[in-house]
Amino acid sequence: MAIGMAQQKGNYVYVYDEKNRQIWNQLGQLHGYTSSTVTIKRGEYLYTYNEKGNSTGNHHV
């Protein structure tokens, strides 16, 4: 399953698959996304998540 779109709605980022079905959401500010990852900013950190919503790392900004 690939990431089709990530969208900011209020304080949450909603992630959708290629068929436009919501697959997960997370608190924070959308920083960017690809077909396999979503990057979300919370505080002074960027968190990267995979298509299943599992964290794959973080980075201080």
Task: Give a short synopsis of this structure.
The chain has 61 residues and is mainly beta.
Structure description:
By secondary structure, this protein is mainly β. Helices cover 0% and strands 69% of the residues. The strands form 2 sheets. A 4-stranded antiparallel beta sheet has the order 4-5-6-7, with no helix packed on it. Strand 1 and strand 2 form a beta hairpin.
Question: How would you describe this structure in keywords?
Answer:
about 60 residues; mainly beta; four-stranded antiparallel sheet; three-stranded antiparallel sheet; 7 strands; about 0% helix
What portion of residues belong to β-strands? over 45%
Mean pLDDT: 97
Strand order of the largest sheet: 4-5-6-7
The radius of gyration computed from the alpha-carbon positions, rounded to a whole number of angstroms, is 11 Å
Question: Fraction of residues in helices?
Answer: under 10%
Task: Give me the count of strands.
Answer: 7
Sheet/helix structural class: mainly beta
Give a quick account of the main beta sheet: strands, pairing sense, barrel closure: 4 strands, antiparallel
Low-confidence stretches: none
How many separate helices? 0
Could you spell the SSE succession in H and E letters?
A: EEEEEEE
Overall 3D shape: globular
* End-to-end separation: 30 Å
Write the layout of secondary structure elements.
Elements: E1 3-9, E2 12-17, E3 22-27, E4 29-33, E5 37-42, E6 45-50, E7 55-60
Antiparallel strand pairs: 1-2, 2-3, 4-5, 5-6, 6-7
